[in-house]
Backbone:
């Protein structure tokens, strides 16, 4: 199972093409916020850029916090999203340890689904899809 | 979000009131340059000076901003402190997308705050803060404070001025997101006159996209063209600094206040040298995958025992020409150090560099003495130039107060007009010949970007006046179309009229009043009308003597050809800007 990694952010030029692609192609909106990946500066443009993106936790705290099953655990990490089940409580964003879920002003959550559609739009090859390692099961067995 | 009218936020700093105006005219003006001129026509005051508090400061984006790559610029329009006429300046950074996502086609600021103020606007926010404590703060430090004051890291734009804008130098710039600027014609001064230290624009909304596959398909095609074709390679490779060597070879590189048009020393400040020795990284405007912003670094030892600091300074061709070649500063790091001071003070780097080049020659020729210049300005002396920049920004005497108003203003007082490199304002970096000098000298913004006169000079040895004038008018009109979209002019090879029309249709702006070319012509006329109504007399413009003394690759400059172009272009401008008969036809003749 593959997941998105912002592996080479030191190359990032801050063009936001990734966020715009995610918003356009996945969420069908024009936005640099309503996306599974958001770019921010790390304290002004002279300090470079950071990507706010899902790290594919397992177990995913956002899925655990979701009271309606709108976000569910993916097999090896990360989440699946069923928007029609969302009641817009915002608990998922509160639970995310790395601020990867964006809530719009109507409390709609936007989270990376690891589809990889943003990757070809990064002109500096900052992003990649990687095979997630098989997770360690409880008790240490794989 | 797709709509056939403009949504404008009007902020009055005198009253503290904000209003949202829905203004028709999308089909007539597209946006950007057209919208700004339309707004100035509506809200500006032809009968009041630039510093009247009620003059509007306008920031306008285009219909495709955010929808397509490289539609990433903002048009800033105002009555210029430099010549007291309507003007425009363009910048990118995150300003354009922030306005788009704040759901504004334009932000118009009027009035004057009682004390130094910062303004924050967004789709659900408008707020002013007293920042009197930032008086005198440089542009970089101001940015740091404003970042802490307002939310939205990465998806907001922070515009601010330095001391030069507060002190009303005529060529203070507006710094946009650290590395971009509304540079020319004194946008920073217009902000300073409003007591407005900074503007934070929060891009905090998103919008539905048109149904169907047409739009994402077209986006993908355009994105591919802009990222894979050779035509953009120079912009993200060496950047515009790549121009130094070829212009030097063509004897078209202004050098030492245009005493020369080439120099064996030019390689020290070539794009290649900058890339090899100083380039730290590239950056981009939001919505542009090209990444033409080149950030260099300088390091300085501030104490013994290996105590160093480093600074990041953006560079481009024009800053290198003006603060390198024109001052005969031939070390890339020295150029960056001068630019760093200019950046902090918040001056237009081209005007500041060219002004200091004139001052150096004036001192050399005895037109002025160190009593006026305070400093012993010498070609290539970066340390002294760095101190002189601060004196322009914070004038200690009449000489610096005047040079801060413009080189020609200073030359009119002290002499030396003949060698003032002023083409409407301090020149851009192309000593290519007659067509460019006339284009910049008489052009709308006195900018090399008004039309490709510099390129025409490099490609044509013939001296066909009509053909050159047709080119200036036609190329100017094509650029106006892209400026209405507010697309980056680097993309002009891709975004031709047909593609722009297709892109407009794909996002639902199909109903235009005429082709985009016709709209370009309409805006061209409106802009000239505004200029002429504010007293612009193109027929009175003279090209300083220095420009008749140079030699380019084509040989000595042909003064007869230049004079014919000057007179012919002035006539064309007067024709384009002629008043319309019917008052009702004013806006869409």
Residues:
């Amino acid at each position: 199972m593959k997941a998105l990694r912002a592996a080479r952010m030191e190359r990032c030029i801050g063009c936001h093409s990734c966020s715009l692609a995610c918003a356009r192609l996945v969420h069908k909106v024009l936005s640099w916020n309503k996306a599974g990946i958001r770019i921010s500066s790390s304290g002004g443009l002279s300090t470079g850029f950071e990507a706010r993106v899902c790290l594919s936790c397992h177990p995913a705290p956002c899925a655990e916090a979701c009271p309606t099953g709108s976000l569910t655990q993916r097999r090896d990490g990360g989440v699946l999203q069923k928007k029609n089940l969302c009641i817009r409580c915002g608990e998922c964003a509160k639970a995310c340890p790395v601020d990867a879920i964006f809530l719009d002003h109507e409390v709609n959550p936007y989270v990376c689904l690891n589809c990889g559609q943003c990757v070809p739009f990064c002109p500096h090859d900052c992003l990649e899809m990687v095979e997630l390692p098989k997770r360690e099961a409880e008790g240490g067995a794989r | 979000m797709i709509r056939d009218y403009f949504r404008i936020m009007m902020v009055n700093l005198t009253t503290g009131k904000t209003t949202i105006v829905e203004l028709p005219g999308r089909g007539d003006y597209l946006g950007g340059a057209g919208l700004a001129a339309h707004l100035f026509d509506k809200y500006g005051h032809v009968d009041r000076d630039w510093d009247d508090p009620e003059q509007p400061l306008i920031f306008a984006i285009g219909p495709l901003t955010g929808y397509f790559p490289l539609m990433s610029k903002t048009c800033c329009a105002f009555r210029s402190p430099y010549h007291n006429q309507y003007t425009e300046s363009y910048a990118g950074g995150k300003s354009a997308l922030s306005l788009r996502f704040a759901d504004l086609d334009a932000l118009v600021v009027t009035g004057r705050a009682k004390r130094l103020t910062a303004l924050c606007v967004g789709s659900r926010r408008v707020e002013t803060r007293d920042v009197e404590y930032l008086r005198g703060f440089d542009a970089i430090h101001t940015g740091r404070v404003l970042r802490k004051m307002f939310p939205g890291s990465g998806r907001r734009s922070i515009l601010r001025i330095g001391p030069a804008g507060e002190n009303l130098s005529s060529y203070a710039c507006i710094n946009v997101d650290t590395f971009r600027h509304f540079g020319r014609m004194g946008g920073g001064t217009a902000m300073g006159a409003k007591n407005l230290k900074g503007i934070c624009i929060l891009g905090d909304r998103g919008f539905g996209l048109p149904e169907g596959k047409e739009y994402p398909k077209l986006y993908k095609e355009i994105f591919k063209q802009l990222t894979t074709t050779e035509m953009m390679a120079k912009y993200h490779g060496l950047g515009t600094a790549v121009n130094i060597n070829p212009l030097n070879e063509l004897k078209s590189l202004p050098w030492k206040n245009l005493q020369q048009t080439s120099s064996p020393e030019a390689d020290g400040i070539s794009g290649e040298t900058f890339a090899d020795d100083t380039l730290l990284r590239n950056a981009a405007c939001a919505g542009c995958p090209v990444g033409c912003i080149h950030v260099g670094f300088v390091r300085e030892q501030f104490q013994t025992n290996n105590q160093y600091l480093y600074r990041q300074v953006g560079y481009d061709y024009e800053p290198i020409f003006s603060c390198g070649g024109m001052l005969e500063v031939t070390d890339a790091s020295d150029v960056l150090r001068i630019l760093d001071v200019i950046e902090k003070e918040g001056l237009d780097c081209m005007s500041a560099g060219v002004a200091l080049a004139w001052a150096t020659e004036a001192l050399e020729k005895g037109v002025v003495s160190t009593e006026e210049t305070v400093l012993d300005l010498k070609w290539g002396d970066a340390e002294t130039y760095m101190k002189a920049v601060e004196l322009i920004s914070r004038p200690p005497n009449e000489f610096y107060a005047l040079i801060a108003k413009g080189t020609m203003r200073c030359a009119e007082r002290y002499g030396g007009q003949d060698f003032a490199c002023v083409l409407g304002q301090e020149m851009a970096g192309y000593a290519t010949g007659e067509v460019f000098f006339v284009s910049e000298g008489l052009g709308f913004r006195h900018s090399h970007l008004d039309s490709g006169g510099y390129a025409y000079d490099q490609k044509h040895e013939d001296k066909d006046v009509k053909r050159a004038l047709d080119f200036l008018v036609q190329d100017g009109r094509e650029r106006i179309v892209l400026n209405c979209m507010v697309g980056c002019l680097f993309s002009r090879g891709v975004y031709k009229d047909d593609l722009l029309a297709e892109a407009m249709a794909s996002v639902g702006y199909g109903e235009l009043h005429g082709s985009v070319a016709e709209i370009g012509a309409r805006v061209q006329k409106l802009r000239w009308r505004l200029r002429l109504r504010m007293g612009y007399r193109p027929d009175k413009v003279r090209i300083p003597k220095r420009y008749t003394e140079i030699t380019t690759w084509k040989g000595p400059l042909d003064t007869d050809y230049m004079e014919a172009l000057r007179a012919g272009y002035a006539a064309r401008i007067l024709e384009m800007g002629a008043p319309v008969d019917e008052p009702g036809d004013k806006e869409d003749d």
